[in-house]
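Technical note accompanying the year-one report. For the benefit of new consortium partners, we illustrate the data format agreed upon in the data management plan: each record pairs a sequence with a structure-token string. No post-processing was applied to the example shown here.
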Amino acid sequence: MIRLFVALPLPVETRNHLQMLTGGLPGAKWVSPENFHLTLRFVGEVENGQADDIDLALSRIDAPGFSINLEGLDWFGTRTRVSTVVVRAERCEPLMHLQRKIESALVRTGLEPEERKFSPHITLARMRAGRPAEVQAYCDERAMFKDGPIDMDRFVLCSSFLSQSGAIHQPEREYTLGA
């Protein structure tokens, strides 16, 4: 079994900009900069044979390269508990088109369709005990954060191994986006 997700990798410069946003929020478990990425589709645990099918399906995707812009911080969770702190990525048609193609390709391999609506973001922190008011104030203080345009010329299939120090992400395959 292997745990997989499909993502847009981020250049070092962008990861450095994101790292400057980390710190100063009680209860936050910060994502390490080498793990910053924009998830296009979480796959989950699959057998190695299905991983090969996923790789083949993703390798057949033909989509153009594009640019993304990052702007502002946000959080996911409930009214009483925050689960993650994120940087928002601007929705643009080429990004949404690529995500739809990936979703379609993965469903054709036998995966269940993703139930959650795609919300482009980069996870900064997972929260152990985040209260919405504290986290909202943290996000509001950094609301002017912007980065981009960031050129996207490829997407990757990554494996993810859970360890005591957090998830370890490993690129397994890389797929080039067209001109």
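Partners are asked to follow this layout when depositing records. The helical segments are 12-19, 48-59, 93-108, 132-141.
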